[in-house]
Amino acid sequence: MQDLESLKSDLVTAIRLLTAESIMDFNGHLSYRLPGTIQALINSRRASRAGLRVEDIVTIDLDGRVIAGEEPPSESPIHTQIYRARPDVFSVAHIHPQYATVFSIAGKPLVPVFTLGCMFPREGIPVYADPDLIRTRDQGDALAKSLGDARAALMRGHGAVVVAEDVVSCFNLCVWLEENAKKQLWASQLGTPHVFSEDELNRVRASMWQPSVIRKTWDFYVAKGRASGILN
Ligand SMILES: [Zn+2]
Prior knowledge:
The protein is α+β, with helices and mostly antiparallel strands. The chain is built from 7 helices and 8 strands. An 8-stranded mixed beta sheet has the order 4-3-2-1-5-8-7-6, with helices on both faces. Helix 1 packs parallel to helix 5, helix 2 packs across helix 4 and helix 3 crosses helix 5. The chain is globular. The site of zinc ion has 5 residues, from loops.
């Protein structure tokens, strides 16, 4: 496992970059579950996402209690209840992406129409119907139920939740979700978007969900962040 400081640093980098890409805003959070424990790292409730620092990462347990650091986000049950429901998941992002959220508002299915959308279900990304904030365990459980075994769920009129095996993969999926949403929305202005067939989806998914692709995406955004002063 990566050491704690480098895990915290990855969370800070990912959150700053997601904010710079307008996928996260003044709210939103990204967490990592420490393997073999019931603890998770997450950004604090108050710290600015745009200027986040390593010391703004707090440690909580899966009951939402603070182990170390400042107050965690009020919507921490999103993370703790998904970790309880999904043993395969080690990183959870709660984001407010501009484009993907529009699909939940319009009630239109967000479907894979673009190579980077290949990790999401052909029948559409599941939608959690209640627009209220997730502040209780029961609400977190209901969201985890909507998510099922998918890699993302939209939260109607609110945002999205994205899950992965690690922070870098979770970052990738957040970017890919929003890229697919942009292209589907723009294509729908021109006509009816072509959804990938089951066969296309399986083949593209196998090509794209590779450590080399995931790392390349991450390296691109990190370099872009450094060049623009988002990262120091
Ligand atoms: Zn939210």
